[in-house]
Amino acid sequence: MKRLAQLLYLGASIIFAGCSSTSTEEQFVDDLLAEMSLEEKLGQLNLPVGGDIVSGAVKGSELDSLIVSGKIGGFFNVKGVEEISRLQHLAVERGPHAIPLLVGADVVHGYETIFPIPLALSCSWDSTAVERMAKISAIEATADGVNWNYSPMVDICRDPRWGRIAEGSGEDPYLGSIMARAYVRGYQGDDMKSDSSLMACVKHFAFYGAVEGGRDYNSVDMSRENMFNYYLPPFKASVEQGVGSLMTSFNLVNGQHSTSSDWLINGILRHDWGFDGLVVTDYNSIPEVATMGCTTESDAAAMTLKAGTDMDMVSGLFLNTLCDALERGIITEKMIDDACRRVLRAKQRLGLFENPYKYCNPQRTKDDIFTTEHRNVAREIATETFVLLKNQGSILPLKKKGKIALIGPLADAGNNMCGCWSMLCRDDLHKSLLTSMKEAIGDSAEILYAKGCNIYYDETTQLMAAGLRQIPRGDDRQLHREALSVASKADVIIAAMGECADMSGESASRADITIPDTQRELLKQLVATGKPIILLLFTGRPLVLDWESENINAILNVWFGGSEAGDAITDVVFGEKVPSGKLTATFPRAIGQIPVYYNHLMPSHPDPQDGVFNRYCSNYIDISNEPLYPFGYGLSYTSFDYGTATLENNKLSVEISNTGKVEGAEIVQLYIRDKVARIARPVKELKAFERIAIKPGETQRVTFTITPDILGYYDSNGKFVFDPGEFEIMVGPDSRSLQIVTYNVN
Ligand code: BGC
Prior knowledge:
With about 750 residues, the chain is of the alpha/beta class. The chain contains 24 helices and 28 strands. The strands form 8 sheets. Strands 4-5-6-7-8-11 form a 6-stranded parallel sheet. Strands 13-18-17-16-14-15 form a 6-stranded mixed sheet, with helices on both faces. It starts with a helix and ends with a strand. Beta-D-glucopyranose binds next to loops. The site of beta-D-glucopyranose has 6 residues, from loops.
């Protein structure tokens, strides 16, 4: 039987090279399904964790016996082509029906060559850069045996307390959708059967970015209007782009767990959007359906299968309880068949039946991972993601001369450059900022280094915050003294401070999103020296920088820039590269302002925005409504002037001139406001943008076409509607500084 199956695979491979299923491919899957026992089908739905990617440990014999007995459809978190190849051989040579395995991993912003965290990548507003990074991630991951990637995370997030804001593209559905498509294109390529393509897995379906209080794993309560217009579009865009798989989320949504939500999976995803790919649960999320009070544990698996989910990540409940559920009549065999068919189809789309070992080439492991070429691209892309928040007196870029004090716990922490979800990175090989800067300036200037402080005063808090990437501790008072002594000898101070790498990402929510205590105190002391000071801000989320924005001369937000961050930051600090990133998530002025996002609705008593408190208006007694740094904001080393925007027919155009001394890239943004609609529409919504490089003295014209699809919106039933009437069309360098033109549509 195995032999026959192999021949069939070969036949299929000759006839069909594409990645969408044809009727013969479907027939192949159906024939295979017909040969399988119920237990074997359930085996395909089971996805255990295969190892511990952090420590490199593999579950060994346990996994082997599951494979040989046909009890798994794939595994994840095993690093290394040799082990993966061994397991794949086991499945094909000794497992029932020679069915190859899916091999998953979280390759979120690079494999061993690490790129900036996704939030930073989105600040480049450069979808080609994102696609390039995804392609390189796919080349490296597939060279090491992986075929399925748990990325992109496309959760829209308006709450910077949530640590996972670092993993997504920020708060905007339009930009988020463009980035989602770019990730999928990069991972899957034109042909998912290529040896260097990964199957992407868009996650987390859905609304996870809106967990209450920004606390991870919390619940979500949301209107349908909000869902359809803001949180679902990046998922829909990924499906339209042909994403192969989708992961559910950990949260309840309006009282139902997303993992077992028939409305979400069978309804929106499969019925409305026509998704026929694979749906996998998030890590152990089936038993959570019970924990969160939706059903009993024994029924959770049945409910999840019924809802249209195919694969059970980790819990084993599909494998161990669905037979019983079938006997009890609460699920049908067709439901199991449908799920199994989708697992097999995913394998087929990857070309695994034609060649199960296509990802098991040890030569590629040697040649294609962490290459100089990939690292150069990572360095270049990183420079596009930094956001210059303030640059008083054009203090940046620095000249390579004099004495430069480099101070802060992140200045010499090569292991903290990559940020969350970079378990496969080579920490030991990453240059710290100190090393990069010393290399770059050679003898032309002097770097005076002091660590300056810990991340937190409190040792336990730091231990928790730093996770596996600890930064050795010292005595804060002593460290502060050393830093002040170093600063006193310098012409300029660079402070490398903020969050350490694991203070954002999964399970890394913060209630206080300021720069931690000891660092902020040291910053105050450094400012008191009166020397010019630049803050290089490491962070995985928007922070509250009220004091810093007032008192520090320049702030360059460098996020977590990846394995090449040290060099990339150095390139920008010394002006080899000009910053061009713009924020994709609003920076609040105070924690009490959260949630604060640009595309909000108009309150009933609007704030006149005259800078003072107005009683009976929607404002705060103690702070302005305005965020500290708005969505779309970011400075350059040059300046751009916008001419008067003109609207002719449905074309809005504007001239942008570079009035400074260096070439720079500007991100021209177009927003709309629907003035009168069936339901209230936001005060502005991003609908288009263009990233242009302009030479000094040069002027370029940018034209946007206003089409019905950018003027419409979703109603509460998920129907796309359009209300004719008056619109405002806005254009400018960020969501705050906009020219407004009126546009009437009948
Ligand atoms: C995360 C997912 C991830 C999965 C597998 C979960 O805890 O929520 O994003 O893909 O683990 O590592």
